[in-house]
Amino acid sequence: MVDHQLIPELVKTTLFQYLANHTNDPVKHLLREQYRMTPAIGNMISTCFYKGQLISPSSHELTGYASINKPVLWLDTSALPGRRESDRDSAETSISNPLESRLAMSRLEVIDQAIDKQVIDVPGGKPLDVLVIAPYGRQVQELTRRLASLKLKHIIPEVLSVDAVQGRECDLAVFSVTRSNAQGGFGFLGQPYWRRINVALSRARFGLIIVGDAGFCRSKPGALRDVLDYIGAHPQECEIRDA
User: Fold this and answer.
1) CATH number of residue 63's parent domain
2) Considering only CA atoms, which of 107, 131, 132, 133 is closest in space to residue 120?
3) On the chain, which terminus has fewer CB atoms closer than 10 Å, C or N?
4) Residue 61, class by beta-carbon neighbours within 10 Å (0-12 exposed, 13-18 middle, 19+ buried)?
5) How confident is the model over 170-229, as pLDDT tens digits?
6) Which pLDDT tens digit goes with each residue over 156-185?
7) In terms of DSSP bridges, do strands 238-242 and 128-134 run parallel, antiparallel, or are they unpaired?
């Protein structure tokens, strides 16, 4: 099997962005209203990625979900000794983060149990559609492996890479940052790749969970620092919680 690894030129922009950059009004027009994301998520996306121009007029929410966490939750691994990404040898071009994988699966179990106990009321009694998203192929594999051992009654999860979720929608999204290292290497999560962060964090209707090392993500300017700043400034609907 051929391993098609990403290179910087492939992820700094998209075909859609290229076309937008090379067209003018009236062909190019910003759609200012979005109805997929609950306002807690939509307002964060608007502030961090669209200069506050995106409006979220729909106030839909998942009944009872706020009793276990806010609609936007960052599970912070920065105080945990196992927070760092996995070591890789010279032949490897992708990384994983086993701790983040375990925490992501644990959160899915918490949500599933809350539905089972009727703490969370799912519309129509249908299973929740959940996307578990990671920016690196090895982390996608790690999450998929751990997910295989979970027995979830009320959740239908799917693990995908950031590049595979563009255009997808879901009820809940879990994003594993994956990167955390002493060298300050952000790779494809660095400032030039902010569009990838936007894609990953804007898939969910009701709830967004980010799992990652907040201290590491604050260490350099970029989309992840902006997201953390927003979460910290909006405690009514967002929270940073020690993992």
Assistant:
1) 3.40.50.300
2) 107
3) N
4) middle
5) 999 999 999 999 999 999 899 999 999 999 999 999 999 999 999 999 999 999 999 999
6) 999 999 999 999 999 999 999 999 999 999
7) unpaired
Identify the residue whose tokens are 């609907």. Answer: 237
Domain that residue 197 falls in = 34-85+95-242
5 found inside a domain? no
Q: Is residue 11 part of a domain?
A: no
The residue assigned the tokens 């009236």 is: 26
Separation of alpha carbons 131 and 213, rounded Å: 20
- The answer to the question of residue 25 being in a domain is no
Total number of residues shown for the chain = 243
Whole-number Cα distances in Å, 116 to 80, 127, 129: 30, 11, 15
Tokens (6 digits) for 67: 């009793």
* Cα 189 to Cα 176: distance, rounded to the nearest angstrom: 11
Number of domains making up the chain: 1
Residue 15 lies inside a defined structural domain of this protein: no
